[in-house]
Amino acid sequence: MKNSIINNLFEFYKLVGTSNSVYTTTKQYSFVKANADSWPKVIFELNELHLNYKDLHHKIKDNQLPNLVFLLENKLIETHLIKHKFNLRSSTVGMYIDLQKKNRPEDDFASIIRVNNEKTAIEFARIASSAFNYNILPSTILTLISCNNLKIYIGYYQKQYVSCGMLLFDKNGISGLHMIGTSPKFRGLGLGKKMTNKLLYEAYKNSSKQAVLGASKAGEIVYSKLGFNADAKFKSYII
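The chain above was modelled as a monomer; its predicted structure follows.
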């Protein structure tokens, strides 16, 4: 499943990038470089046969490329990155769930709404920015609303919108769960779990056989309890 996980994630990056006119692909790699100090900024789809590590380092230093290289764990590529003075920033886990072996969640999501206009896009950007601790522009989210294969949601609690999540139905029929987050003050209340179940509910409606996501080490524990299995390790490098 690791290829299905990484392919869904890369398709997500491409969708966000092309929708905002900030996606570029070359024979060495692809990258998304949002304008100003905002998300997303990432280099991905490294081509091991054509990759020039010295040139990659130079272009990042010169601000031609984003300072974040994301890849499926690969000892050879990582050895070259480290040799060219890249540093490991983080490790995350790719996970999947077989929807044919899991009961469909009950439709109990009255507190979660679809993002479908400027007002709700602003709310999503606010929640996600606080949840992930990087700047997400409302305009970035607004461009994604019309994408037929992407569903965007926010959830409210005590009359405030405090959680967010996205679901990408990719070209292979896999449903990818992305950007699941909760405002820091409202963590520990099960709101992230509820958003995850909402996205899984929508994955069933997509008739997906599997759903995938990327998780931190802490997130891996939470998602494992929901039935997800770890099947890949991702690495992020910076200079």
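The chain has seven helices and eleven strands.
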